[in-house]
């Protein structure tokens, strides 16, 4: 062995390959044949070795791929678990935040409703509200909310639903404080409005709507303009007789003729609606079922009878005269054309809605004039009493007016009736009208 550690063979050493060859030469023929077979087998094995290496390599790659897939799947699951834990924390936080937010909102809402129920946090002031007849829960809630008497309509509606009978609310105008709790509010509205002092007013038969409105104003019961405006509204169409009127646009005042003249007790705080309701209710009660049946049999409508009654009221001298004037007017309406009479020619209609020429504006021409228009005017010219209505339904059948087409009165109210124009002219001369 040299200094560098390498080992060398002796010079006289025989090469291994040569010894091997000499060994082969010393073999017998059978051994040699056997050795050839071994070489063939070795050759065959040598030829198959690359295929097995390739198969081994493919198997290794497949194993590695499978291991990589498993490892990747494992990593994916791990990432998903981490992500799920993170999402779970986010979801829990979001859910908690939502629960807290909803809880705070609900708590604030309930506290607001509770305060409104108790009248807390509302300004201490007064408001005026008007409650109509047969008010519903929805109407009442809307009225109070719009007037700022309540702030939470849904809570008040719920309160009324479970604690309040709606039929006990009294119609009228109320002055209430805005800091009332719900119970105080309901008790006030069910106790009835403060109507103030009682006022008694007498309305004579034949009074017109204009005169009636002026009389109400004189007694401190609203202004005449407020009354007249209401008389042309549709607020009273719940009354069957008013609802039956079909020519509203042709009339000066829709309610003329239906505000029954009588003595009434009002209160200084009565609404316009409640005042006119009393007139209209009285009118409906005065017309009995028998009277209505007889009107239907007469061939006239109720409105035509009331229109006729208003003219009778304005033209007749007294109750007895009403039935005879009615007979003359019926004759003119029903058979006047046979005598060339087509108009009623009643002075009381010439200046309506005014009483006289002095009341009317200069140059005024009434569309109700029975000198210029055939038949009855568009509506009543005043509010007739019961006697005039009865006379319109049941005209006189006495001899002096059975065929009469004319009438007149002297200054003392004495009545004259005639069947012809000549007789009528003589009556007018006797009455001092010519």
TrEMBL record:
Residues 1-23, 40-81 are annotated as: Disordered. Residues 63-75 have a biased composition (Basic and acidic residues). It catalyses: a peptidoglycan chain = a peptidoglycan chain with N-acetyl-1,6-anhydromuramyl-[peptide] at the reducing end + a peptidoglycan chain with N-acetylglucosamine at the non-reducing end. GO terms for cellular component: plasma membrane. Keywords: Cell membrane, Cell wall biogenesis/degradation, Lyase, Membrane, Transmembrane, Transmembrane helix. InterPro entries: MLTG-like (IPR003770). It comes from the Bacteria. It is a single-pass membrane protein. It is found in: Cell membrane. Functions as a peptidoglycan terminase that cleaves nascent peptidoglycan strands endolytically to terminate their elongation. Belongs to the transglycosylase MltG family. This is Endolytic murein transglycosylase. It comes from Hominenteromicrobium mulieris.
């Amino acid at each position: 062995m040299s200094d560098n550690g390498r080992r060398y063979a002796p010079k006289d050493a025989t090469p291994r390959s040569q010894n091997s060859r000499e060994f082969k030469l010393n073999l017998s023929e059978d051994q040699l044949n056997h050795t050839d077979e071994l070489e063939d087998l070795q050759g065959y094995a040598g030829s198959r070795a690359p295929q097995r290496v390739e198969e081994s390599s493919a198997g290794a790659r497949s194993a590695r791929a499978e291991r990589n897939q498993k490892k990747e799947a494992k990593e994916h699951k791990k990432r998903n678990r981490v992500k799920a834990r993170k999402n779970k924390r986010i979801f829990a936080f979001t859910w908690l935040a939502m629960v807290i937010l909803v809880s705070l909102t609900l708590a604030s809402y309930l506290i607001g409703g509770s305060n409104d129920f108790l009248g807390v946090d509302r300004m201490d002031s007064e408001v005026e509200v008007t409650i109509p007849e047969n008010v519903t829960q929805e109407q009442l809630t809307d009225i109070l909310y719009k007037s700022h008497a309540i702030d939470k309509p849904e809570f008040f509606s719920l309160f009324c639903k479970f604690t309040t009978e709606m039929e006990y609310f009294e119609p009228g105008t109320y002055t209430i404080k805005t800091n009332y709790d719900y119970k105080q509010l309901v008790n006030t509205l069910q106790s009835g409005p403060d109507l103030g002092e009682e006022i008694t007013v007498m309305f004579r038969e034949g009074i017109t709507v204009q005169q009636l409105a002026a009389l109400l104003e004189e007694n401190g019961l609203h202004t005449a303009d407020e009354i007249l405006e209401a008389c042309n509204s549709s607020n009273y169409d719940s009354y069957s007789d008013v609802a039956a009127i079909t020519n509203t646009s042709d009339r000066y005042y829709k309610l003329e003729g239906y505000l029954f003249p009588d003595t009434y007790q009002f209160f200084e705080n009565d609404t316009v609606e409640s005042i006119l309701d009393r007139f209209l209710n009285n009118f409906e009660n005065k017309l009995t079922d028998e009277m209505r049946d007889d009107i239907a049999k007469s061939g006239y409508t109720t409105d035509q009878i009331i229109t006729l009654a208003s003219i009778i009221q304005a033209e007749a001298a007294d109750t007895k005269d009403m039935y005879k004037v009615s007979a003359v007017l019926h004759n003119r309406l029903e058979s006047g054309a046979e005598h060339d009479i087509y108009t009623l020619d009643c002075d009381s209609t010439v200046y309506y809605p005014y009483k006289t020429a002095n009341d009317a504006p200069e140059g005024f021409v009434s569309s109700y004039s029975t000198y210029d228009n055939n038949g009855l005017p568009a509506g009543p010219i005043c509010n007739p009493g019961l006697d005039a209505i009865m006379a319109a339904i049941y005209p006189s059948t006495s001899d002096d007016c059975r065929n009469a087409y004319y009438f007149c009165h002297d200054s003392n109210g004495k009545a004259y009736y005639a069947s012809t124009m000549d007789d009528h002219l003589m009556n007018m001369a006797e009455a001092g009208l010519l």
